[in-house]
Structures are given as C-alpha cells and as structure tokens.
Automatic annotation (TrEMBL):
Native species: Methanoculleus taiwanensis
Protein name: Uncharacterized protein
Domain of life: Archaea
Length: 101
C-alpha cells in the first residue's frame, strides 16, 4: 500500500509539472522523492495547485512532516481553512498529537 501511495503522489506531481512547468514541478518531485513528505506550506501549495488544475488526487496518500521546529511553527500559523485542506493528509498519530481528533 505504501508503494502505491508513493506512486500516486509522484503521478500527481508529474501531471502538475506539465501544467506549471518543469522547473517548479521538478522541485516538488525532487523534494518528495528525498523526504517522502511535504512541509505544511508545501503541502498546502501542492494541494491548491492540484485543485486549480483539476488534477484528481487522494489526499491521504500525501504525507506531512512536522518534525522540526520550523515545520511545527508553520503548522501553528495555518488558518482554519488551511488545516481543513491538509487534515486528510495527516496520520492518526499526527491528528492526535496536534489535537485535531
């Protein structure tokens, strides 16, 4: 299942790359390949672009990383709409830790 989720994200990012251009699209792909997750701000940007370009995606396949203080601070500064957008990407343990259950 994990491999299928990973491949789904890469497929979505490749489709997005055809819409936004090689340079920006490749940076998202490279970051995801290296980290297998996005920072809160990156994830919001990616999901908004997927919606804007009508690229279908499965939210729970996209992973969020909030390990570093910088990432935690990004998450704390999210609006309610932004949290709602990425909430389906959070693991149960992340939801519990962030008190979103």
């Amino acid at each position: 299942m994990k491999k299928a989720n990973y491949e789904h994200v890469i497929d979505c990012l490749n489709k997005l790359k055809t819409k936004i251009g090689d340079e920006e699209g490749a940076s998202f792909i490279n970051y995801y390949v290296k980290n297998e997750a996005f920072t809160p701000k990156q994830l919001i940007l990616v999901l908004r672009m997927l919606k804007r370009y009508n690229i279908p995606y499965t939210a729970f396949c996209f992973k969020l990383k909030i390990r570093r203080n910088r990432e935690k601070l990004q998450f704390e500064r999210l609006t309610d709409d932004e949290i709602s957008l990425i909430s389906k990407c959070l693991s149960p343990s992340q939801k519990k830790k962030l008190d979103l259950m």
